[in-house]
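Quick one, C-alpha cells below:
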C-alpha cells in the first residue's frame, strides 16, 4: 500500500488505534482527517496536533454519514484512503434479559453498520481516486472472546464483508485492506489484562508492525497475536475457543450493566 502523499479519513481517529495511525500517517506526509463523537476530545486532539483535521461525526447515524461525505468530498476532493476504525466493545451477560433492546445492538450499529454505510457513502470518490479502504476488524474475527459476544460477532461480520468487498472492487482499482489487531492497550481494551493468555501490545507497537506489513503489501494485516489466533483456529479450534472463554469468563458482568 502506498503510505505517503495521500488524503486520509479515519473514523474514530480521536483516540486509541485511530489516533496512533493518524499521527503515523501525518508523520509520513499525508493529509489526515479524523472523526469521533465527543467534541471535547476532538478539540483536545486539534490543540495537540494542529495539522490534523477534526470533524465531529457518529458512524452509527446515517444522516451524519451523509453530511460527512458531502463535507469531505467538497473540502478534500483528493480523498483516497478511508480507514473504518471507529468501534466499541462491551462485555455482556447473555443469561439475563437486556434492559434495553435498542441499546443491545449498539456494537452492531457502530462496528458493522457504520463500516458498511461509510463505504457506501464514499465509494464514488474512492473509485474516482483509485483509493484504498482499510476496514478495522480484530483478531477476534477468528476466535470469539465469549465475554464480548456481540463485539466478536461484529468483527467476524466485518471480516466476511471485507472479503466480499475486495472481490467486488477488484477491477475498480480500489484496494481493500483489513487490519486485524490483537489486544492493544487502549480505552476499549482497558479490561483485558496481560497474563491471562493475552499479550497486550501498545499502539506504538501495533503501528510499527502494521506499517511494516502494509509496506510489504499485506491485504490482511495480522500483527502480533492475531497471526497466532488465525493459526490456532485452524489447528485446534475447540481448544483455542475454550482458552478464550476461560480467559474472559471473569469479564462477564454479574448483573444488568447498561443493556
Ligand atoms: N484495542 C484493542 O485491543 C483492539 C483490538 C482489535 C481491534 N480493535 C478495533 O480497533 C478499533 C479502534 O479501537 P480502539 O481500541 O482504538 O478504541 P478506543 O481507544 O476506545 O477509541 C475508539 C475511537 O472511536 C471513536 N468512536 C466510537 N464510537 C464512534 C462512533 N459511533 N462514531 C465515530 N467515532 C466513534 C471514539 O471516539 P468517541 O467515543 O468520541 O466517538 C474513539 O476515537 C475498533 O474498531 C476496535 O474494535 C481494538
Amino acid at each position: 500500500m502506498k503510505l505517503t502523499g495521500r488524503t486520509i479519513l479515519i473514523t474514530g481517529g480521536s483516540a486509541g488505534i485511530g489516533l496512533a495511525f493518524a499521527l503515523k500517517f501525518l508523520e509520513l506526509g499525508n493529509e489526515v482527517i479524523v472523526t469521533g463523537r465527543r467534541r471535547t476530545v476532538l478539540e483536545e486532539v486539534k490543540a495537540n496536533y494542529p495539522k490534523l483535521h477534526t470533524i465531529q461525526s457518529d458512524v452509527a447515524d446515517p444522516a451524519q454519514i451523509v453530511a460527512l461525505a458531502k463535507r469531505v468530498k467538497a473540502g478534500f476532493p483528493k480523498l483516497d484512503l478511508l480507514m473504518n476504525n471507529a468501534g466499541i466493545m462491551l462485555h455482556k451477560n447473555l443469561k439475563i434479559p437486556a434492559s434495553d433492546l435498542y441499546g443491545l445492538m449498539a456494537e452492531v450499529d457502530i462496528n458493522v453498520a457504520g463500516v458498511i454505510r461509510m463505504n457506501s457513502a464514499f465509494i464514488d470518490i474512492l473509485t474516482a481516486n483509485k483509493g484504498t479502504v482499510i476496514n478495522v476488524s480484530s483478531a477476534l474475527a477468528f476466535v470469539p472472546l465469549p465475554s464480548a459476544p456481540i463485539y466478536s460477532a461484529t468483527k467476524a461480520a466485518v471480516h466476511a464483508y471485507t472479503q466480499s468487498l475486495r472481490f467486488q472492487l477488484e477491477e475498480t482499482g480500489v484496494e481493500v485492506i483489513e487490519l486485524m489487531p490483537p489486544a492493544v492497550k487502549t480505552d476499549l481494551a482497558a479490561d483485558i489484562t496481560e497474563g491471562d493468555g493475552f499479550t497486550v501490545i501498545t499502539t506504538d507497537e501495533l503501528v510499527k508492525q502494521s506499517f511494516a506489513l502494509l509496506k510489504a503489501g499485506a491485504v490482511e494485516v495480522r500483527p502480533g497475536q492475531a497471526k497466532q489466533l488465525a493459526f490456532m483456529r485452524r489447528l485446534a479450534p475447540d481448544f483455542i475457543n475454550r482458552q478464550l472463554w476461560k480467559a474472559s469468563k471473569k469479564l462477564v458482568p454479574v448483573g444488568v450493566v447498561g443493556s
